[in-house]
Amino acid sequence: MPVLAERDRLLLNPEGTEARYGKDWTVVRGTVVSFGYGHRPLSGDRLDRCVPAECRHVPRADATLDATVQYYNPHHDPRMRHLTGLDDLVLEQVLNTPGAVGTIDRTVSLAVDLLNDVANRKCRQVRLAVGCVGGRHRSVAMAEEIAHRLWTRHEITFDVAHLDVGKELLPPRDHGLRS
């Protein structure tokens, strides 16, 4: 089998062997992107006519998970405010939020289904996005856990990109807190 470039991803079947479609080995790229809704200005480009205003600030993806409402926001805890979803304490808090693990597991299943569905098409890329208010806590933790579970349960590697994890904290009012 030819050596794949580092960022190329091989789609594996449930038995952990290489998936084969027709005569060619199928290479699929997967990416999970975290972002903060509060850091995404409306773009104003010509595609905006086709996209509702409330969706213009969301990165393009095959599926987008909005983590702004249902899951515990570590920003509300002064001990975690300056940490990120890459820190164990934040990851643990997010995963302990009721419903978070179930949502992550369903997103992993969706990603596997999308990979299987697009593997026979010209488009060989699957992109997931997870957003929270600031893009530092919930979205980062959930994106990391989705990628981790894709690898540990299905041996499928997804690249992970955190668009806003290094940006300044948004003001408390953006998180529903009083200044």
Describe this structure in words.
With 179 residues, the chain is of the alpha/beta class. It has three helices and six strands, in the order ββββααβαβ. It has helices at residues 88-95, 100-118, 138-154, and strands spanning 20-21, 24-25, 29-36, 63-66, 125-132, 159-162. A hairpin with a 2-residue loop joins strand 1 and strand 2. Helix 2 (100-118) crosses helix 3. The longest helix is centred in the middle third of the chain and has 19 residues, at 100-118. The chain starts with 19 loop residues before the first strand and ends in a 17-residue tail after the last strand. Residues 1-25 have low confidence and may be disordered.
Our count of helices gives 3
Q: Identify the strand order in the major beta sheet.
A: 4-5-3-6
Number of strands: 6
Q: Provide mean pLDDT, rounded.
A: 76
